[in-house]
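Re: the pair you flagged

First of the two:
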Amino acid sequence: MHEMVKGSNVGLAELSEDTGSVMVSLAWSSDTGEGDADVSVLLLDGNGKVGNDADFCFYNNPVAGRGSVQLLGKTPTAEGSEDRIGFDLDAVPPEVERIVVAASRYDGSRFGDLHDLRLTLADGAGEGLLRFAIEDSGAVSALIFGEIYRRSGAWKFRAIGDGYASGLAGLATDFGVDIDDDADGAAGQEEPREAREPAAVPSPAAVPGVRPVIPAQASPPAASSAGGTAQEPPAREKRPARPRTAKKKVTLPAAARKSLAESDAWNEARLFPASALKSDRERETRATSVVLSVMAQVPEFGRRLTAAFGAPAGRMETFTEVSFPHGEAPRRPDGVIRVERAGKLWTALVETKTNGSALKTDQVQAYMDIAARRGYEAVITLSNDVALEGSSLVDVRIDGRRKHRVALRHLSWAEVAHQAQMLIRHEGVGNAAHAWLLQELLHYLQHENSGCHGFQNMGAAWVPVRRGIDDETLCQGDPRALEVIENWERLVRQVCLRLGGELGQKVLPVQRAKRGADPRVRRVELADQLCEQGRLHAVIRIEGTPGLLAITADLRTGKLRTSIEVPAPESGYPLSKAKRLIRRLAAAPADLHIETLVEGDAPGPRGTLERLRPEPADILPKDGAQLTGFRLSLFKGMGSGRGNAESGFIRSVDAAVDRFYAAVVVLLETQPTRRSRTDAQTDGC
């Protein structure tokens, strides 16, 4: 991989022959795991300005450049998570000369608080081409990582690493994005991201072509290089500004309409019926046809699933049961995806598995060979399993002598359902018919007979490992413990997908690791800890919550613990802080466990909410120790089975997370802290 330094540039064609579509990833880490930023892309003309406001690609306008640029969201990595951006460079409008890749922070946070800031760029086959690490970002809240630009008809990349103390508003203003004033002539204030319209209401800013509204400032924003300073104007309350657009996207209401059926026993007619499916082969055939047909008919959905694999934005056609000659007998992959853009074709073979069936190495290897011979770009596997970084689901042989490289990609059925739910419940699609198609697809995937339920089996090692922990015979280095750790990570990632789809927010696992650490080494260490302590532990970050949600499964006691640590208010006496917390938790379960966090390693007082309601002072430290926060926890028994049955471990984890979020976390979100004007401006961009 080509290592970049600040100010350097390189031609993409010098690094790979497959740069028609590229993937840019931005990543960072923080000490707490809570540090985050929003990615944005600006498409600039020859004058260094956006041609129009639709050329500003950000979280409210995730597709720009006539579909050639798309924000693909976050994906977990060994070191935390990374934001991905797909670029179809062959389809970038000819008037665009430069594409600036940036990110911005909010809530008064700066990039100097983050570590390991880096940009990586991969070609259409997923091969990493270049890497740019930013060593010192300074006290800036918006940062330009780099830019992709044309030179003599070819695309090049330049490493920049400069920032704006004035935030995303300053950056966007410099590149010509319009700034709207409110009706009073003063600076407008966009609503905080956490306080926007409910998920069931269509967001007017969710379509390409939206005019981003950046509130004007009392004085011009100061742009500076990394480490620069700028005076921020004082906070003032202003009427919220709304993004303008000519067309709203369609979402479906969260609550179903009242049924006209005479009895609850009546079954509603469905476009994709699943009740008659009997065999695994029938399930695979039906599931493949259903998902591929909806991908072709709903452009937003098809693009969402294929852009991360290097597919261009174009006309998509899908096929099933296509026969290809291969050796003595023909091969029939489950499906084929073809995307046409400007006379060029992008093609992927699809192999699906349902009902927990495992992918077969010989099948996938045959499809990789066929794709390489025919010049296809990718082989996509689709199953209930969840792929982990550094751990392949199938081991295939890549012939290095072949000039054409084929990318092997994997999708989980849980991810397919997640993307459908995000579109129809939160982000919206082009019309009501597309929304209905996605709703029918989601109903099919969630039907108990479809076989498309995502990860639902902790594996053959689950029961032996639990028994080994009970009788203390499980030793470090046992490969069965590593299998349990890998499946636990798969389960946690699926919990994040499901919860994120329901909430319409980013939900990601927090994985703290040293920079460049091998994820397999990290899992071996966790397996040794499991043998020693008998516990599985995970932490997830839910956008908009005041802390990280921790999940601990104690295999010795059979208890699941879900918890969150919340900081104590900065102002007020200790007793006032305790009373304030108890009031906010008025509707929480009586068995909620509250523990006081104090400076140092000493444990603080603890008790149940039922006992503390009449006596909040009981939670205060008696030795005068400084109160820093509170840990809130709920406990429940966990299932013993390895599957997803009523008594299964997987279902008990889902139930524990859902209960804790609904009964505790939402109560902590009801009184968000007021943000400064500059922070609100950043969110308004």
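Second of the two:
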Amino acid sequence: MLPAFRLSLVAAAACALAACAVSPPSGKNAMTPSFVVSPVLATVHRGSDDLLSAGLGLAGLRGAPSAYADPLHPTSAELRRRAIQASWKGIADLGPLGGYGSVYGAVPDVPGREYTAFARLPGAHSPHRVLLQVPDHFDRTARCLVVTASSGSRGIYGAIALAGAWGLPKGCAVAYTDKGTGSGYFDTADNSGVALDGTRAKAGQAELEFAPANAPADAGIAVKHAHSGDNPEADWGRHVLQAARFGLAMLDRAYPDAAPFTPKNTRIIATGLSNGGGAVLQAAGLDDTGLLSGVVALEPNVHMPGHGRALYDYATEAALLMPCALADPRFADTPLARVHGAVPPAFLARCASLHADGVLAADTPKGQATEALQKLHAGGWRDEAIATGASTTAFDVWRAVAAGYASAYLRRGVGQMPCGYSYRATDASGAPGAADPAVRASWWADAAGIPPGAGVGLFGGTDHSADPSLPGLRCLRALWTGTDADAKTLHASVAELAAHLPRAGLPIWVVHGAADGLLPTAFTSEPYVAWLRAEGRHPLYWKVPTAQHFDAFLALPAFGNRHVPLLPYGYAALDRLWAHLHAGQPWPEDVPTPAAQVRGAATLTRGQLDLPP
């Protein structure tokens, strides 16, 4: 167990900064679950603040990052507001043509309370965050708890644009988990991390979200997902189930006269997207006690050995081959695949490198691009996914994902990442250096959980050639294709990610974009759904035409003109599940996939989404 916060200090700081009240356990129904390893911080959010947008509303969410009165010492309330805003912007299309708030979705004012704490799974080295949002209009006659996990490696509010936006206005409470990831970065240079209220504190002065043991002072930035030593992805389903139990316990605390809240009297809906989608599907397979009433998973990172492909496998393959494959003429009009109409020099350099390595036999750039594309096709990649994978390639996401996940799978600590990688604070030029104090103070709100970004860079694994990232990528790929001890350890860790078969009769709806280039349907949702159906389960599945992985990218004209958002289809699936659970409407045997149409250069219309009435 980690040492507990001094409750009086937490209460004083939080109430001074965020108009809150800290509620100690009181009575049988307010007992804190044994897996909670800190005091529960209870805060009230009304008036100029609220649960869904921290008082920003839709216009404020769309605007510039919310400001701090003192950038060197942002308050807990300011950090929370900015974290919520960053989570919305990272997930939803809030652009002027995207239709959020008019065609689908809404950001109403939702006053209420939050309960947050650090929790721990048995055997875990590090704690993680859990959070419950309880709207003031919580419906005690139709008790509803939505449980979710953050997308990507984001912090605790990472799924608010899906679970919070759908559940809170309906009167549901919403329980969140960061699933052992998050943005509680620890700076080994000044021995500081993130406290429960989001502010920074020195190790030993407060309980921290992540504090690596015995970290050298020059080891750089420690990130929980990559450096905790826990391979958290293997436990994402357990995180979700634990968050649901935390939510029930906090509802007991919020409404002691209506306690106990149990799965028998409270409908529990699990929903998430991307890594959060994979987490709720993991939870469905582990839910032996019937905790969950239904599951809606969007673009899930789900893995079943023998079905589809593991993320690490196809990410490292794409990191090597996709730059060259995108030089093929068929991608000439693909956003981010050309620079001023020409193939980027980096793509051609990769083709030449792969030829020199003997991976590609062709001796011309055109032939090399064709050959690289053929290899991707042989691995199951489709052109629609490769085209949107151009953004993942241009933004160097494949390398960032592979380096961080390799460290997690090998259970490496800070300063021990494989293939020579490390996370370092960056100066204004992007070079490694001491962290800017104002940037560091805002990491909890601004960072996405896997660098680079927010003043933290990914360094190492490079040389001074025309293709500088190739050495590290070769090394990362060899961890999958090789047979040495590290490769065996990595494969064993990936095997731990396997989803289990959910119980018969559990309503499950998987929603995925046909053009997803980060988690392609061919490797994830399609084999998962096929597996369930072969085992006698009856999941619903929407493979939405033209939808890709990042709704937030649709604010860019090149993306918004070509792709529909995925969030409205997640909301629609949740609506149908709610009608089944709350109103008793029959659960359908099948639901036709909407015939989505892109908006082009105009504003999105409801008809283009082809949503069910």
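DSSP finds 20 helices and 15 strands in the chain.

-B.
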